[in-house]
Design a protein that fits this description.
Elements (H helix, E strand, L loop, with lengths): L1 H20 L3 H15 L2 H8 L5 H12 L5 H12 L6 H16 L1 E8 L5 H15 L2 E8 L6 E6 L2 E6 H13 L1
Parallel strand pairs: 1-2
Antiparallel strand pairs: 1-3, 3-4
Length: about 180
């Protein structure tokens, strides 16, 4: 994964800088998201890995599959990726682009997983506390995982806070085995 990120970073940075200059971050995020989804299709993967087609043909087919979602600059970006045999990097490019965009906008998406449904008031308090701690606007997504037994697991970008009973039991078992 680290290698894919390393390869994808220059493309993501170029797309981000261009989108920022054109004041089109949301449009580029949407284009990249669709292109990444198309690239992950099994049928598209077969075409992309086929030695029968040239890079230009692969790029043109890919642009056609994306339809009207790609503007001319997005089409050029995809064709450039095809020419460099990097279409498979689109999911990683999209992820990095979203990170660059979130950093610019000073926002972060936070996933809160708990053993039971949390009340909206609790989620609002958690969002406020995380906003102060992280210094960013926070968007909280909540989900339920009954296997946690109790407590919560909070994921904000690369930061993970595991305060679940399941996580505590795993740490205790690890300490006892050490």
């Amino acid at each position: 994964m680290a290698e894919l990120t390393t390869l994808a970073r220059p493309y993501a940075k170029a797309a981000f800088e261009y989108a920022k200059e054109q004041n089109a971050l949301a449009q580029w995020a949407s284009q990249l998201s669709v292109a990444a989804a198309v690239s992950q299709s099994e049928a598209v993967g077969k075409v992309l890995s086929s030695p029968v087609h040239t890079a230009a043909e692969k790029g043109n087919v890919f642009v056609q599959l994306c339809g009207d979602t790609l503007n001319p600059h997005g089409q050029n970006f995809v064709r450039n990726l095809a020419a460099n045999k990097r279409l498979g990097l689109l999911p990683a490019i999209t992820e990095l682009f979203e990170e660059f965009k979130a950093n610019l906008e000073k926002s972060v998406d936070v996933d809160v997983t708990s053993a039971f449904e949390l009340p909206q008031e609790t989620l609002n308090k958690l969002a406020a506390a995380l906003q102060i701690k992280l210094g960013r606007d926070v968007t909280v997504q909540s989900s339920v995982d009954e296997s946690l037994l109790g407590g919560v697991v909070i994921r904000a970008g690369d930061t993970v806070i595991d305060d679940s009973v399941k996580g505590r039991l795993a740490k205790l078992a690890e300490a006892m085995n050490a």
